[in-house]
Design goal:
single chain; mainly alpha; 60% helix; 9 helices; 220 residues
């Protein structure tokens, strides 16, 4: 698969912006894939025919009391055994199909994290190994764990937030000179909104507050 379609994970402890950018590309690339259905809690298209369970609750074997005719009883009981065996095979085949999808995707994630976030990859593998299947991993669960990092601030993010907030203070305290071109004002607004604002932790610039800030950015 193309590297630009499946970029490497940013690092062991990505910033909010780095994580959001990575998830945006990966989520877009997941559309239409079998594992995307698993991530939504749906059935992968190739397994739909195997997903329909057969209710055999009342389809049980007969005793001599239930059916005195031995030949009829044997035929019925053989049908019951066959139906239950077929249902067990269906369940097994469906589980194997889901494992094929999720373990295959785990391999894709491993390639994305192996170089840039090996420690995080080890933790994901340890947490989402498939019980009873050595060397198999639930890639869907691994992806959900990475998505859950949104809003979780690790050491790097805390340091990054402080730096971005200091840059906001610099932008706030440094006025544009009178007579500057419109591009200077646009660049300053872009730097705040696109580069620094998504990484804020303590500072809150929302709606009317942000509007006031952008007005204050105008040259004197």
């Amino acid at each position: 698969m193309a590297e630009e379609q499946w970029p490497e994970f940013p690092c062991e402890d990505p910033t909010a912006t780095e994580l959001a950018d990575w998830l945006r590309v990966w989520d877009a690339s997941l559309k239409g894939l079998e594992v995307e259905a698993v991530l939504r809690g749906a059935t992968p298209p190739s397994l739909i025919s195997l997903s329909r369970a057969t209710d055999l609750t009342d389809f049980t074997e007969l005793t001599a009391v239930d059916e005195p005719d031995a030949a009829k009883r044997l035929r019925h009981n053989a049908s019951v055994k066959r139906a239950h065996r077929d249902e067990a095979n269906r369940v097994e085949a469906y589980a194997a199909g889901v494992l094929r999808v999720t373990n295959g995707f785990a391999g894709q994630l491993e390639r994305a994290l192996r170089r840039t976030a090996p420690a995080r990859l080890r933790r994901l593998r340890a947490s989402h190994a498939v019980a009873g299947v050595p060397g198999a991993y639930d890639g869907a669960a691994m992806m959900l764990a990475l998505r859950a990092l949104v809003g979780v601030r690790g050491p790097t993010q805390r340091q990054s937030s402080a730096w971005h907030e200091r840059q906001w203070e610099r932008l706030r305290d440094t006025r544009l000179p009178d007579g500057c071109v419109a591009d200077d004002y646009a660049a300053k607004c872009h730097e705040l909104i696109e580069v620094h604002l998504p990484n804020f932790s303590r500072v809150r610039l929302e709606k009317s507050t942000l509007t006031d800030v952008l007005i204050d950015f105008l040259p004197e």
